[in-house]
UniProtKB/TrEMBL annotation:
<protein>
    <submittedName>
        <fullName>Methyltransferase domain-containing protein</fullName>
    </submittedName>
</protein>
<keyword id="KW-0808">Transferase</keyword>
<dbReference type="InterPro" id="IPR029063">
    <property type="entry name" value="SAM-dependent_MTases_sf"/>
</dbReference>
<dbReference type="GO" id="GO:0032259">
    <property type="term" value="P:methylation"/>
</dbReference>
<keyword id="KW-0489">Methyltransferase</keyword>
<dbReference type="GO" id="GO:0008168">
    <property type="term" value="F:methyltransferase activity"/>
</dbReference>
<dbReference type="Pfam" id="PF01209">
    <property type="entry name" value="Ubie_methyltran"/>
</dbReference>
Length: 293
């Protein structure tokens, strides 16, 4: 996907209708008159809403302040978590995307590009990685760091809950580390799934101490020190049109990673299939009556 193709692939983050590219190619305008700056930095500003909700605004501010300390800080966190091998764990998570050379991948919340570098390697040669983040400073650092030989890389500032792409655009989507604080988390799950073609993969992870570890003394300390580790895995946010759902715990069982395949339709229960015998009828009726149904 060339830069031109990328600009044409961008759509309105709310209605998903086409955007008009200005003659000087410096901006995109939606049908309802909202303008998005293409600029000439290589990072298109697709942020929506223009005034972020409070949690998103706070996170954007915090990461914009901390971007130079981020890489060292996050590696220290993983070192405390059972002396985890950060490189091996990130390679495991990116492996879950099932990427192949030539594919098109999206990363939301790419931060300083630690996982992006692995995504680029997987889609080489000839593939495309679209990298996005809410924080201009984090994403600029990723852009400065990443080597882009034999691969198309496009950057945009964006909110993971409002993705500026048509349905089914990507072979796989990845997000790690931020979704616990997204103002509209359920909407982000819907968006991360919507833009992946049926058969493509979604991989999402963030803090959540595995339930069986929560009473361990050192995990209790972690639990008190950083409330983000108290988050539950947001299983209820997963959209219905998925298959092959799997859940992993990584980084000392203090982070979850979920993977699933997008399907064209949600599964259904066939409630009209004839019941195969009186035993079933009686058994299910007794259970339903007991449950007060
Ligand atoms: C802990 S960092 C993780 C960065 C990178 N994925 C990593 O693993 O090193 C969380 C990132 O999510 C971004 N972020 C937070 N809220 C976001 C949102 N609503 N949409 C997109 N990115 C967001 C932050 O700016 C930050 O770069």
């Amino acid at each position: 996907m060339t830069h031109q193709d990328f600009l044409h692939a961008l759509v309105c983050p709310t209605t998903h209708t086409p955007l008009q590219l200005a003659d000087d190619e410096k901006s995109l305008t939606s049908q309802d008159g909202v303008t998005y700056e293409v600029g000439d930095t290589g990072i298109v500003n697709m942020l929506y809403p223009k005034e972020l909700l409070p949690d998103d605004a706070r996170e954007q501010y915090l990461y914009d302040q901390a971007f130079l300390r981020y890489d060292r800080g996050v590696s220290w966190v993983f070192e405390t978590l059972n002396h985890s091998d950060e490189a091996a764990t990130r390679a495991f998570m990116i492996g879950l995307m099932d990427l192949k050379p030539g594919m098109t991948a999206l990363e939301v919340g790419a931060g300083t590009g630690k996982d992006s570098a692995l995504i680029l390697e997987k889609v080489k040669p000839g593939g495309t990685a679209v990298l996005s983040d809410l924080s201009p400073n984090m994403l600029k650092l990723a852009q400065d760091k990443l080597a882009v030989d034999d691969v198309n890389v496009h950057y945009f500032l964006g909110n993971g809950s409002y993705l500026p792409f048509a349905d089914d655009t990507f072979d796989a989507v990845f997000h790690f580390g931020g979704i616990n604080t997204f103002s509209e988390r359920k909407k982000a799950f819907d968006e991360l799934t919507r833009v992946v073609r049926p058969g493509g993969k979604v991989v999402i992870g963030d803090e959540s101490i595995a339930p069986w570890m929560r009473n361990q003394p050192t995990y209790q300390t972690l639990w008190k020190a950083n409330p983000l580790f108290r988050a539950e895995v947001p299983l209820e946010d997963v959209p219905p049109n998925v298959a092959n759902f799997r859940l992993h715990w990584v980084f000392g069982n203090a982070f979850y990673v979920m993977e699933y395949t997008v399907t064209a339709q949600a599964p259904e229960i066939d409630i009209d299939l004839p019941i195969p015998g009186k035993d079933f009828v009686d058994n299910w009726r007794i259970r339903a009556e007991k449950a007060g149904e």
